[in-house]
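Hi everyone,

Forwarding the result from last night's run.
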Amino acid sequence: MPSPTTAIAPPAAPAPLAAAIRTGVALLAVAAFALSYDALRQMAVASHIHRALTYAFPLVIDGFIAIGIGALLILRTAPLPARLYVSALVGIATATSIWANVLHAIRLNQQGSHTGLALDDITVGVISAIAPLALAGAVHLYLLVARRPTTPDSHNGKGHNANNGHKPAAVNKDSATAPPTATKANNVTQATTTEAAKTENRPGKPGGHQTSVSLEQAIGIGRTAPLGRAGRVSRRNVEKAIRDKGFGISRSRLDEVKNLLQTELDEATTGTD
């Protein structure tokens, strides 16, 4: 049972059905706009607006309704004052359009001569209010359907798509619930990295990757190397002793160690004499 704070996504509609709904709602909005447009334009003419501008008067009212509804959907997570402000503007525009349509129908009903079916003013006013209401509702429905996710109309023999309408679960690289293959690969990678780190931290073997020896370590190991000809420090013996310990040493460092050991040996020999 989902918790009260868990948001359950609405099921996605098939793409052909969603397209058909959008088309139908768009045609409904166009028809409602045309009916309301005619009444609002006649009201603009009766209000002595310049004839060239009467065509724009319905766009100001009904067009604002459509834009305002779209703004409400976009600002649905905005602060409450902003949403109340836009809602008030949309409400005023809708009420204005309804009032203008109703007044237009009533005045024509009062002034015209009836040759066919005669309706009272209330009925005429209610019928004329349908167009602006349908326009606002159609715009709202279209935007809702357009924002709703759709699924392709591909089904298997059981009437469901291959993954039964569910998206594959997202895999967290650090999660313990990762697929077995991914977990095994991660474990192998971690083990390899740990082994490489250990190898770098311990002395290497001859012929393999060897860790560079420090100057102090090289001097200490060099003291244990046997002397060469004439009782002098042998560069080759020092290098062999260092290599046998599993360390690597550069040529310049080896020369430095050999010279320091020879100086130390000379000082010791002189002091003995």
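Residues 106 and 123 are 9 Å apart (CA to CA).

Cheers,
N.
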